[in-house]
Structure formats: C-alpha cells, structure tokens
Amino acid sequence: MARLKQQFQRPQERNLRQAVFRELAALHLEKKIAPGQTVAITAGSRGISGIDVIIKGVVEFIQSLDGIPFIVPAMGSHGGATAEGQLAVLAGYGITPATMGCEIRSSMATTIVGETAAGIPIHVDQHALAADHVLVVNRIKPHTGFVGEIESGLHKMLLIGLGKHLGATVYHQAIVRSSFRKIWQEVAPVVISKARVVAGLGIVENAFDETALIAGVLVDEFAEKEAELLKLAKAYLPRLPFREIDLLIVDQIGKNISGTGMDTNIVGRKYNDHAATPQDDVSIRRIFVRGLTAATHGNATGIGIAEFTNHRTVASIDREITQINCVTASHPTGAMIPASYETDRQAIQEALKTIGWVPPHQAKVIQIRDTLHLGELLVSEAFAPELAKHDQIQQVTDWEEMEFDQDDNLRDLLPGE
Q: How distant, in Å, are the alpha carbons of 134, 141, 214, 215 from that of 23?
C-alpha cells in the first residue's frame, strides 16, 4: 500500500459568525421579525462543520433584532426517536442552552397541519409551530438516495427534520411509491405557510469537510436557490481517485459522516446497496467497515451497505436506534449486519476470496478514514499504472506491506502521518 494525497477545490468561509450575520442581514429580516417575537431555529443531526458556531451566530443575529430565539432539534428519527436522545445528539455537537445562550425545546410531538392530494398527513414539530417564525438551517448536499434538482438541504429539513419521527416515517413511505420531488412540492409550501418560515440559511461544504459558503435564502426563493447551491455542493464533493475498486476499507461510518453512515455518492451504491449501476461514478465490489464514529452513538445505519465487518464493530452497534432509523427511512437493508470476523486480517482475507479470480497482491484495494475525508488515502500497488494518469494525485510514501498491529487489526488512517 502507498499513501496518496488528492487535490480538490478548497473555497472556505474563514469567519463563520461574520458570514452568518452578513447573509441574514442581506435578507432584511428586521422587516419581518418584530421585537419580542419568537423564532425557532432548526438544528439537525448531520456532522456539519462548525455547526455550533453557525447556530450560535443565528441565535445572536435574532437577538440583535430583539427577537427571542430558541432551538428545535430537527432530525426525524435520529437520537433514538426520543426528545432526550435528540438533545444528546445536539450536545455532542456543542449545542446546549449554555453554549447557545437560548432555550432548546425538544419534543417528538407534532401537529398535522394539512395533507397532500394523496392524503398523506403533513406533520410539523409542535414547538416550531408555536413560534412566531421558523428559520431553517441545513447543509445542502447530494442525498444518499434521492435524486433531483433538490436533494438534501432546506426542503429536506422542512419535511424530514420538522416532521420529526412521525413525519419522517410517512414521507419516506410515500417516497417509496412516488418521488421526493413530488412529495416536497406538495408538503414544503404547506409547512412554510403554517409554520411561518421566515428564511433559510444554506451551508455548502468543500471536499475537506470545511464550510465553503453560507447563503441566506428568502422563503420565496427556497427551491431556486437550493438547486443552485446543490450544483456547487456536487462540484465540491470529494471523490475516490479510481473507478474500479475490488475492496474498499472504511475505518469508520456514522450519522455524523452521512445519512447512510458512508456517503453512497462516494462509494457508488446510491441505487443498489451491493452493486454499482450505470448511474454510479464508481464501482466497488466489496466494502469492509472497521468501526463506528463516537459521535454516532451506536447508530450504525448503513452498515448493511458493506459486505464485511469485524466483531468489535458489531458489538458497538445500538440495534434499536439503528433499526428505528433504517425502518423510518424505508431502508431496512441499511441495518443488516455483514459477515463479521474477529480480526481485520481475517475480514480482508475473506473479502479477497470473493472478488473473482484475482491474486491478493493484484487486488485493487483502497483504505479511507471515512467518506468525508478523502484528501489522504491508502491504495494498493495494483493501482500503480493508473497513478501516472492523475495530475491531481501525489504519492507521498513508498509501497509498503499492509500494516497490522499485534492483534491483527489495521492501523486507522490518520491524516498527515
């Protein structure tokens, strides 16, 4: 194996609080938010870079208008689909009443404010609905399952986030036989109207898990602006350097990495859990997951996308939380447990038996930290002939034997070693 460094575009907002104030000030919210009015600010479960600074910036901006902000956990079924669990998720990101300087009102209770033409009930978090206004904050990015001009972002927060567990469940059920586009087109306008949504704040990240830009969005421009920002997000998305891969080794998956634990836009399984399709940019025969992130709190959603894992990963899974999340998302296969082995060496040996008639030393193997961090990765010597074709890749170490510790487990891939 050898360590590679990839070069990606790296636009970056250097001062997050300043960017939040700049973008929200440009929306002239002082004309809409009167002194003393309450504003519910959405905070989701994704691992958004600097989300605590961004949310606090929104809080302070509302306070500068003499409004009364409070935070609403907007995350569907995450946190075990409990109010306490969702508070714990936010606390893990540094979002608490003490750090934010305002209340966090957490509940799984919703109010049905209407229904779609097909009779699907439209759920809205009760705390958000009781506020004078709602300000929607979310990262805009390619979704791991939905495809369209709008995927994961402000509209998803309106539906799945503010819909809580009940809303997330019915919308995902509806999407199975319809499409996300049809559902959001019917649901979003109702939520915006009934919840008195005042504005949005869209976040786009670069390939290094850094904030590339923050954009304030007027309510009547939600669809148009989000579609523009999604194009940017796709352009900034990190990618694996090669298309054909026999075995991908992933050090960690988790909800703070992706909604599916590992981003299916990266691993090429957006349309089929275990095989590449013509729509995918990469074709990976087998995936081996070595662990879960601490921030995922045992939620192993997406573990079922992999074919191989180890016993210690299985032991760290909170089955109940994982299954609630996957069933809510109508993706039960995401919770299935792969073939599991005592050591990483065993898992790799067994995985390489299933890639076809290829000697192990000729297998195309890549090891990554997770799907958010692809600036550095390890690749096997079978990729050597392809390296010369890539001017955006630098080989930084010589070819060396795959490194196992005394327990026959791989070392984690840490940056800058």
A: 16, 19, 7, 6
